[in-house]
Amino acid sequence: MTVARPPLSIGGIVRDGVAFDPKRWKHGGVDIRGIPDDVREFLAALQAHSVIPVLVGGIAMLQHIEGRNTQDVDVIISSDELSRIPELVVDSRDRDFAFAHFQDLRVDVLLTSNPLFAFVRRQMAHPVEFLEGAMQCATVEGLVLLKLYALPSLYRQGDVVRISLYESDIKSLLAMYDVPLEELFGLLETHLRSTDMAELRRLVADLRVDVGRFDAGAH
To answer: Which pTM was predicted?
Structure first.
């Protein structure tokens, strides 16, 4: 018999992610007690302004794998919706992303002006129950698609920390779920250069070898 997992708390996830980050311990650390309240108020602001986001990033990952930390909330919304939330202070933005904060809560926004982000919001999301209430979350396929899409840019930036995190996330999802990779590659081909696609195919092949090695060891 499968035992249903109790709903996760978005505020608790972010609070714990901040609490266990050694970089935050300098100068006596940070006060994490208000983070769950910030999350609840942020979600209330979204509802008040009729914005229904899709959760991506670490919060969405934790619906599918355990042991993933995050210190922020990542959402897909439109530019128009972003402008309707005056309580959300935008620190910087470009065509595809906005980096913002709501009180002490960090919020990273993927904007639907990017066609791939818009597609994930429309086609690769499902409702998930959290302690704070029901939210739309990216599916496994949506998360793998977004992480594969992000990697070529991260490679060019030399962002070793995020590269390692995203590759680990993809490998974990491939190990636990039957992901339709060819379908995802087909979607990515209209958004990435052929050289990027070749690199991603090599990466996924290597990750699948690693996953197969773990499966063989388990048996």
So the answer is: 0.91
* Beta-carbon-side half-sphere exposure of residue 77 (alpha carbons within 13 Å): 25
Inter-residue contact 105 to 14 (CB < 8 Å): yes
**Residue 211 in this model has a pLDDT that exceeds 50:** yes
Which string of DSSP letters, residue by residue, matches 64-106?
TSSS---SEEEEEE-HHHHHT-TTSEEEEE-SSEEEEEETTEE
Show Cβ contacts of residue 181 under 8 Å, excluding neighbours closer than 6 positions.
Answer: 144, 204
Instruction: Map out the domains of the chain with their CATH numbers.
Output: 10-138 (3.30.460), 142-214 (no CATH)
Please give the single-letter amino acid code of residue 161.
Answer: V
The answer to whether 120 touches 56, Cβ cutoff 8 Å, is yes
Nearest alpha-carbon partner for 105 in 208, 219, 194, 11: 11
Instruction: For 106-148, write each residue's pLDDT tens digit.
Output: 999 999 999 999 999 999 999 999 999 999 999 999 999 999 9
Kindly report the backbone phi and psi dihedral angles of residue 3, in degrees, each rounded to the nearest multiple of 5, phi listed first.
Answer: -95, 125
The H helix count followed by the E strand count for the chain is 9, 7
Strands 54-56 and 133-138: parallel
Q: Residue 33 gets which letter from DSSP? A: T
Distance CA 59, CA 129 (A): 12
Q: Order of strands, edge to edge, in the sheet holding 125-130? A: 89-93, 97-102, 105-111, 72-77, 54-56, 133-138, 125-130
**Distance between CA atoms of residues 151 and 182, nearest Å:** 17
Pairing of strands 97-102, 89-93: antiparallel
